[in-house]
Structures are given as structure tokens and as C-alpha cells.
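dumping this here so i dont lose it
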């Protein structure tokens, strides 16, 4: 009985779908939404960790191995903490353990609402002078945050090299500008709902649907279509819809 409750449902993961996933459209919105379940996020992070390890092995002789990782808050915290479990220590004496820290960068006010330019809202927590640094985020969208952080770490913090690490890319242009370790791609019109922002997306998007004419039942149908579990809809939908 215990194993039925705790066994991970990895057998439901379709790697081909998650490499280039397509979100769903809903009424009263121009965005498409991609709901990433917790076990899928863990699977993707494991695949990224394996790619980082292969990068580390390939660079044993180049002195370009990653020794420090900067998690961009808030998006990079969940994949960063999961990567920490894989990369903060090593059994291979030729692979250095990675020291993790944080940097707060704000670039979005909400789904589909980029700010004019990124800004630092939480200072860098580790010293990266002369280090090869992995920058962990949940998504490379238009590349604005990636370029901002790259310039900040290289020019102001004097890092030796910056390697971007993210589950998904929307912009391929950044691949021509810096080293990127990633899992897959998503279309530009798709908002990814990661496990750390399920509630945030709901409480920011339901009022948008309501203000564009959706009744409560239509909002519930949209959330179900996106993939929200019913228990979360039952807790958050009505008070969010009725909020002024």
C-alpha cells in the first residue's frame, strides 16, 4: 500500500512531447498555457543535470568547468534547488562540486507582461570573480534577462565565463551569444506554468478572463483545460474571481 502512494509516476512522461511541448488555448486569452506537473519538472531537471555533467567531463582539460551556480530568483530557485541535489557534490575527483548562490532579477510583472528592462532586486550572494558560473533560470524568453545577467556577471562581477542553464528556450538567438545548456523549446506565445507559480498564474490570469467577459464557470473550465487539479481550483478560484 505504501509504495502505491509514494511511487513516482515517471511512466506517464512522454519525452518527445516535453522536448517541444505545445500549450493549450483558452477562452478570453491570447496566450497559450503549458502546465508542467511536479514529476515532469523533476524529470526535466534530471536531464539537464546529466547534460551539465557531460559538459563538466568534456571540459576537464580546458579549465572551463562550472564551479559556481547562480539561481535567478524567483524562476531559477526550483530548478536550481533540484540541480543542487545532483551537482553540489560529486564522486568523480575530476569534476568539481558546484557552489550555489542566488541573484534576484525582475523582468516580468505577470504572464505576458514584460517590464521595460530587467532590474536587480536581490544582490548576488556568492563571489564569482574569476569563476566559471552557471546561471540557472526556468526559461529563456526574449533573452533580455539572460543578456542582462550575462553582462552583470562578466562586466561588473568579473566572472571568467557564464553558462546559461534553463529547462526551456523561446529565443534561439541567445545560442549565438553564450553557452546554453537546456532541455527543450516552447513557442513564443506560450506561458509555462511551473510548479512554483501555479497559484501566482491563477490569481493573475483569472481576473483578466473575468474582466474580458468570462463568468466563474468559464474560468473553472479554462483552469481544468490547462491542467489545474480540482483541489487547487476549489481553494483559489472563487475568492480570486470575486476580488475587486
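and the seq i came up w/
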Amino acid at each position: 500500500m505504501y509504495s502505491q502512494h509514494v511511487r513516482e509516476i515517471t511512466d506517464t512522461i512522454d519525452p518527445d512531447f516535453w522536448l517541444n511541448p505545445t500549450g493549450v488555448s483558452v477562452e478570453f486569452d491570447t496566450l497559450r498555457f503549458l502546465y508542467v506537473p511536479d514529476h515532469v519538472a523533476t524529470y526535466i531537471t534530471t536531464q539537464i543535470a546529466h547534460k551539465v555533467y557531460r559538459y563538466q567531463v568534456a571540459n576537464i582539460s580546458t579549465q572551463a568547468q562550472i564551479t559556481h551556480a547562480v539561481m535567478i530568483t524567483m524562476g531559477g530557485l526550483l530548478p536550481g534547488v533540484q540541480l543542487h541535489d545532483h551537482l553540489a557534490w560529486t564522486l568523480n575527483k575530476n569534476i568539481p562540486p558546484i557552489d550555489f548562490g542566488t541573484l534576484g532579477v525582475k523582468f516580468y510583472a505577470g504572464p505576458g507582461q514584460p517590464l521595460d528592462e530587467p532590474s536587480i532586486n536581490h544582490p548576488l550572494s556568492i563571489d564569482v570573480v574569476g569563476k566559471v558560473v552557471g546561471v540557472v533560470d526556468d526559461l529563456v524568453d526574449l533573452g533580455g534577462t539572460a543578456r542582462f545577467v550575462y553582462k552583470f556577471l562578466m562586466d561588473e562581477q568579473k566572472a571568467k565565463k557564464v553558462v546559461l542553464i534553463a529547462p526551456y528556450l523561446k529565443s534561439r538567438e541567445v545560442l549565438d551569444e553564450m553557452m546554453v545548456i537546456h532541455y527543450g523549446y516552447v513557442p513564443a506565445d506560450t506561458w509555462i506554468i511551473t510548479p512554483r507559480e501555479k497559484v501566482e498564474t491563477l490569481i493573475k490570469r483569472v481576473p483578466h478572463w473575468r474582466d474580458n467577459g468570462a463568468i466563474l464557470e468559464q474560468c473553472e473550465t479554462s483552469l481544468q483545460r490547462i491542467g489545474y487539479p480540482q483541489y487547487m481550483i476549489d481553494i483559489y478560484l472563487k475568492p480570486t474571481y470575486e476580488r475587486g
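Residues 108 and 203 are 15 Å apart (CA to CA).
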